[in-house]
Design goal:
mainly beta; five-stranded antiparallel sheet; 38 strands; 40% strand
């Protein structure tokens, strides 16, 4: 049973079934779980980046299914490559390239059959014109993991910088007996960064952050680019780690050490590695939230045991849940939310139950329209719809009212696109910035940033667009910023990564 060995058996959680407690004052406003489909041991769900209605569901055995117009079909079959399903082994997650509709590339994280327990990240390629199926293309990452059956990590996510991020567990056992999480030379117990276009693959990666026990699920806020990690604890605490993005298109948390096994949540570790002796408390990035192995404080029930990290809600249809982080626990099955820290704060706040309980949730997912999903170990995938309970703290989304004689400035939305997102080294990339709303915007200045440094400005046209032509000699992240005016607040775009077109080697033999 997936993740079961993290804390022993799930005990009474298997008897819960799907229980939806509607705590809102009216059915029309209640947060609900809308059934999407039934699958065989689903572990993750995502969508086509260009079509939110094309859902991809990863099943633990190695099948990737495409759900389109309520019809499920096999998109990729990796069952001969995936070792499943002892303890936590199997297919763990998938990620579609941001340019999937153009290049047909997607990636899979699984435990392989060649060497038992070995962690694989593979590139798959769909050459079908309508992207209806995919097959193996290349290995990106292979990490030995044969000592224990658990603590694989398992998440793949494309960051706002366009690179692929991978979470790995510490290798298994109590108190990290192999000392992987604190070992700067080990890829285990880490978040890794991979450039899928690197010609030196496989195993050309960067250790992005360390000190993690089993970061089974992490995500990026689709608006801010902030990274949020749900790291499964051992016997005492579950934790949520937070790495805010310092600038559009830039991923936070580089070099962060989240403390395991010197720390467990906000507490000292029970059996810390000898490597901890050389580190001070200041060397660690503390979690912004942790919780104990006790029943859910709002709904009671079975003791909580394993955090299932989720996503920051950016679906406008979710009402006051907008901007809050949604997560769950494997054993209690309760779906909860909290407000991640603002600038200058070290802790999350407003943790509360959303009145939803499932049987063993194993993952959340987000589609291209920012709708949120939750995956149940038993086979169901649901979409979150409606609004949170009335007594769940809501995120203040409006500024304090201003005097009638001085209206509040309106919001600013900034977008940035490129004619091509892959160019030859030394060639120019044509970038287009657009700003909305457009009224009273003609002639306003737009600043362009290259890898976080200012790189010139242009004035908005009558159509509220500005174009930039920039030569690119290496992978580069561009972002656009519009300053505040009397009518509008300041705004910034997400990062846009322009990659150097590589000379890809022929597919590697298996």
């Amino acid at each position: 049973m997936l993740l079961a060995n993290l804390k022993g058996v799930i005990r009474a959680a298997a008897t819960l079934g799907v229980l939806v407690s509607l705590l809102a004052t009216s059915a029309a406003q209640a947060l609900t779980l809308e059934p999407v489909g039934e699958f065989d041991q689903p572990v993750y769900v995502t969508s086509d980046p260009g079509d939110a209605d094309r859902l991809f569901v990863a099943e633990r055995s190695g099948i990737i299914r495409l759900l389109e117009d309520e019809v499920s079909s096999v998109f990729a079959d990796l069952t001969t490559e995936v070792e499943c399903c002892e303890n936590e082994r199997g297919l763990a997650s998938i990620a579609l390239d941001p340019d999937f509709d153009d290049n047909g590339r997607l990636y899979a994280f699984y435990t392989g059959t060649e060497e038992p327990g070995e962690l694989h990240v593979d590139e798959l390629l769909s050459t079908d014109p309508n992207h209806q199926n995919a097959a193996f293309e290349a290995n990106l990452l292979i990490v030995p993991h044969g000592d224990f059956l658990s603590h694989n990590g398992g998440q793949l996510q494309f960051g706002p910088d366009g690179d692929l991020y991978v979470s790995t567990g510490d290798g298994g056992g109590n108190n990290d007996p192999l000392d992987n999480a604190q070992d700067p030379a080990s890829p285990l117990g880490k978040v890794l960064r991979i450039d899928p276009d690197d010609p030196n693959l496989p195993n050309s990666y960067e250790i992005w952050s360390s000190g993690l026990r089993n970061p089974f699920r992490f995500s990026f806020d689709s608006l801010s680019g902030d990274m949020v990690i749900g790291d499964v604890g051992q016997t005492d605490r579950e934790e949520i780690d937070f790495a805010p993005s310092p600038f559009p298109g830039i991923v936070g948390g580089e070099g962060a050490n989240y403390g395991w096994d010197c720390r467990e949540g906000l507490m000292p570790g029970a059996g810390p590695s000898p490597l901890c002796a050389a580190l001070t408390t200041e060397a660690f990035t503390e979690p912004v939230f942790d919780y104990p192995h006790t029943p859910d404080p709002d709904l009671g029930g079975t003791d909580r045991c394993s955090v299932i990290g989720g996503y920051v809600a950016r679906d406008p249809g979710l009402g006051a849940l907008l901007g809050r982080y949604v997560y769950a626990d494997l054993c209690s099955g309760v779906v909860r939310s909290l407000q991640l820290p603002a600038a200058g704060s070290a802790s999350a706040s407003g943790d509360c139950s959303l009145g939803l309980r499932l049987q063993s949730p194993v993952s959340f997912g987000e589609d291209a329209a920012h709708r949120l999903y939750v995956v149940e170990q038993g086979g169901a995938v649901y979409r979150l719809a409606g609004s949170p309970p009335a007594d769940c703290p809501a995120l203040p989304v409006n500024l304090p009212p201003a005097p009638e004689s001085k209206p509040q400035p309106g919001p600013t939305f900034v977008g940035i696109t490129a004619q091509r997102r892959r160019v030859e080294r030394g060639k120019a990339a044509l970038l287009t910035v657009w700003v909305s709303p457009c009224q009273k915007r003609k002639g306003q200045s737009v600043a362009l940033f290259r890898n976080g440094a200012r790189n010139g400005s242009r004035f908005l046209s009558r159509a509220c667009t500005a174009r930039f032509l920039r030569r690119v000699h290496r992978n580069t992240v561009f972002a656009a910023v519009v300053h505040a005016s009397s009518d509008y607040l300041a705004g910034s775009s997400r990062g846009l990564k322009i990659k150097i077109r590589p000379r890809r080697p022929a597919p590697r033999p298996r």
